[in-house]
């Protein structure tokens, strides 16, 4: 058999690439557009729970992007108490493959990819679904994906007011300080959920709950707002879907009945969100096949569970840039 080699990009390599906000958004937007044009394969994620969901689990995401001619598999851990050990709650590896022959192309530390692509999907969803003059952001959660949510959202909307909240005072304070330093503007730390989200133009719920609990109340949502909940465990009331003019998801195949976890799991299982009242998948909107926001008075819900294709597209962009810059290690496979 011929000799085969792959590229390994570790965490420091990924950091050295220093992808810009524009590069991140462009890579993820391309993946969404390909999905909308039915040029992708997205397999519903599967879960490995070694002991209990309270402790942590693994998500396995698989996909293929035709325009990039690449397939990939990402395995990401989700351990809510990792902060007690000085570890990220989410750590990941992404494997990229040649779809013609299955040859491995790259192994990439995908911890940062997970954070970046999640923030990019949040921001791109808001670009199409939020009011253009949105100036107040309410963000619950301070994990890794939260930083990129706020950073990439602000790159689009240049908010006048950013409010953040999380369960632990030390985490929300550190989160706000980092954002304020990097964005060059003040960030407000709130003591509770209500003062964070009430009246905000865009509400993002990225909490880390051990079990479902309705902590974000429907009555706090401003008419015309965009609400983006994506916690593993639901933090919203069942009535949230009742006030929505439009409901959008990233991939209905990962949201339908019978699957575990997700911010709107109970809403789907109870029929409050279904294939008939779903407005669109975000990819259809990005590709121009369905409209996004059409009026300022629309109150819109966007639920994203995480797309393998956005991981793969961002990993592909990193691999391309790494090769141009001479970064990474070449490992012999065969």
UniProtKB/TrEMBL annotation:
InterPro entries linked: NAD(P)-bd_dom_sf (IPR036291), ODC_Mu_crystall (IPR003462), ODC_N (IPR023401)
One Gene Ontology CC term in the entry: cytoplasm
Regions annotated as coiled coil: none
Name of a matching Pfam family: OCD_Mu_crystall
Name used for this protein in its record: Ornithine cyclodeaminase
């Amino acid at each position: 058999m011929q000799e085969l080699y792959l590229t390994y990009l570790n965490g420091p390599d990924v950091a050295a690439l220093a992808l810009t906000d524009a590069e991140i958004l462009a890579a993820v937007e391309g993946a969404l557009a390909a999905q909308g044009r039915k040029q992708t394969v997205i397999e519903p994620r599967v879960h490995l729970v070694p002991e209990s969901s309270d402790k942590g689990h693994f998500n396995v995401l698989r996909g293929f992007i035709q325009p990039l001619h690449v397939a990939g598999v990402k395995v990401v851990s989700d351990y809510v108490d990792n902060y007690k050990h000085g570890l990220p709650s989410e750590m990941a590896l992404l494997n990229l493959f040649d779809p013609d022959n299955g040859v491995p192309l790259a192994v990439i530390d995908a911890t940062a990819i997970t954070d970046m692509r999640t923030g990019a999907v949040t921001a791109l969803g808001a670009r199409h679904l939020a009011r253009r003059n949105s100036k107040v952001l309410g963000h619950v959660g301070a994990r890794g994906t939260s930083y990129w949510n706020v950073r990439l959202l602000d790159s689009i909307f240049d908010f006048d007011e950013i409010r953040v909240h999380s369960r632990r005072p030390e985490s929300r304070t550190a989160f706000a300080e980092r954002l304020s330093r990097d964005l060059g503007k003040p960030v407000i730390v709130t003591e509770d959920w209500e003062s964070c989200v009430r009246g905000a133009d865009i509400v993002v719920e990225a909490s880390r709950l051990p079990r479902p609990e309705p902590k974000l109340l429907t009555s706090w949502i401003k008419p015309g707002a965009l609400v983006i909940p994506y916690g593993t465990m639901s933090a919203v009331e069942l009535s949230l879907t009742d006030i929505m003019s439009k409901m959008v998801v990233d991939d209905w195949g990962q949201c339908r009945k019978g699957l575990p976890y997700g911010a709107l799991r109970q809403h789907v299982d109870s029929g409050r969100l279904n294939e008939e009242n779903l407005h669109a998948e975000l990819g259809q909107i990005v590709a121009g096949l369905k409209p996004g926001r059409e009026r300022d008075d629309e109150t819109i819900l966007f639920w994203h569970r995480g797309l393998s294709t956005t991981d793969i597209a961002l990993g592909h962009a990193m691999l391309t840039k790494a090769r141009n810059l001479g970064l990474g290690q070449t490992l012999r496979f065969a």
